[in-house]
Write a structure and sequence with these properties.
With about 450 residues, the protein is α/β, with parallel strands linked by helices. It has a domain at about 315-455. The chain has 18 helices and 13 strands.
């Protein structure tokens, strides 16, 4: 199982008060794979001291080199926190407005040309909007954007300066949120094309999901899934679907919370102590119909305690699932295609952090695999290696005399060529194979004995 810890959780785990929690977490590693993302490093990069490097070293104790990031698509690489940080030249302390001013007012011909063009475009909104039309509670920065610009260049600078202010001044961002909350559109969403929401709750999830996404796509049809997810996350606050407490929110935190929610969706569990993040993330996962569990710290501590007590499950326990009444009654779905059929059932336990589904197939074989319920459809090599080692520990070397997992036996670029592992136990064949995901396949050498699949 993949676990994603929010930055605030990692910070708390450094505290001596959480030593028991940290010890339990370290004990669970292997069966649980702890992951981090570019968002964690972006959080730390805002720390201008060298303490961020010790924070990265602490993180590595937990997350090892399980790194998620997005470059045109979702990617996983074996980067430690230090590795990922060192891949980039991180921005200086300069604000966005200072950077743009420096570019437009430099000796660079292109920058000067842009300034000249923008300055020549008239944009005097004061001629169209009178002071009396401006709401009295509108934040000052928004008023300045509307009334204090005479051309496009001035408007762009004013807008960017206001964005900088919201990024660094929590009070200004609080005022902005309060204004948006007071003037929210949740009762009038039909006016902007959002359907399936009655002003208080979702009434038609599919209609709401599609129309909500289209609201952000209508002016950017080529928006990628990452940027669309972030826009939809921000919209929860700005459009009033899931509102946090303005006095506790900061703009940069909200931006990175959205990133954490996206990357957390590729894991089985997300952990945070931020109530606002938890509420928004649960809303987004429900909207996207993924079943990543979102825990607060006490819930995850309880989960870890139970997990570590139950982590001594063996191969025989997996076999016994074939007669487990709870498993047999927990049918997820059935598949019928031409002359073949299969019944898919949810297991009562997730074995070795991966296998949580039983498939009884009409071909006579039994399959154990993972019911994937999050964004990630692939399997981490570490997950495969852990399962190989667990089977080796119990069943010994396979029929080809291969023992523990070897780091070079499975190349990511040639994953379809991995031949897996095979054991023979009396008349039972145990295959560990990978195609679209990892499978344990049970078959019988003697065809006349078919009791294995009668469950």
């Amino acid at each position: 199982m993949r676990v994603y810890l929010d930055t605030c959780v990692l910070q708390d785990l450094k505290n001596d008060d959480y030593k028991a929690f940290l010890d339990s977490l370290i004990e669970s590693k292997g069966e649980l794979v702890y992951c981090f993302s570019e968002s964690h490093i972006q959080d730390l990069s805002r720390d201008k001291t060298d303490e961020k490097f010790s924070d990265m070293s602490f993180m590595e104790m937990i997350v090892d080199d399980n790194c998620f990031f997005y470059e045109k698509r979702f990617l996983v690489e074996n980067y430690t926190p230090h590795d990922y940080y060192n891949h980039f030249d991180w921005p200086s302390d300069s604000s966005a407005s200072d950077t743009i001013k420096e570019f437009l007012e430099s000796d660079d011909d292109f920058g000067g040309l842009l300034k000249s063009i923008f300055s020549s475009v008239p944009l005097n909104l004061k001629e169209l909007i009178s002071q009396s039309q401006i709401p009295s509670d509108m934040p000052e920065g928004m008023t300045d954007m509307l009334l204090n610009s005479s051309n496009m260049y001035e408007y762009i600078l004013t807008m960017i300066e206001y964005s900088d202010t919201l990024s660094v001044e929590q009070k200004k961002f609080k005022e902005q949120l309060q204004y948006l909350h007071k003037n929210q559109l949740t009762q009038h969403l039909n006016l902007i094309g959002i359907e399936g929401y009655d002003g208080y709750k979702i009434t038609d999830k599919e209609k709401f999901r599609n129309s909500y996404a289209n609201y952000f796509l209508k002016n950017a049809k080529d928006k990628n899934r990452y940027d669309l997810f972030l826009d939809m996350y921000y919209g929860l606050e700005f459009l009033g679907f899931v509102q946090g407490k303005p006095k506790k929110q900061k703009m940069m935190n909200m931006i990175n919370d959205a990133r954490h929610a996206f990357f957390g969706g590729f894991c089985d569990i997300v952990v945070s102590k931020d109530e606002d993040f938890i509420n928004k993330t649960k809303f987004m996962y429900n909207l996207h119909e993924i079943q990543t569990q979102v825990f607060n710290m006490s819930e995850f501590y309880a989960f870890i305690a139970i997990h570590n007590k139950r982590s001594d499950k063996y191969f025989i326990d997996l076999i016994n699932e074939l007669e487990n009444e709870k498993t047999l009654s927990n049918v997820l779905y059935e598949i019928k295609d031409d002359n073949q059929s299969a019944i898919c059932r949810k297991l009562d336990y997730t074995y070795w952090g991966y296998f949580n589904m039983l498939i009884n197939h009409s071909n006579g074989n039994v399959y154990f695999t993972k019911d994937i319920t999050n964004f990630m459809k692939g399997t981490l090599i570490k997950e495969i290696g852990f399962c190989v080692n667990q089977l080796f520990k119990e069943l010994g070397k396979d029929i080809n005399l291969r023992g523990k997992w070897e780091s070079n036996e499975f190349e990511l670029e040639q994953e379809e060529e991995w031949c897996g592992r095979t054991w023979v136990i009396k008349n039972l064949i145990v295959d560990l194979k990978f195609s679209d995901k990892l499978y344990i396949i049970l078959g019988l050498i003697e065809e006349k004995n078919t009791k294995i699949n009668e469950a």
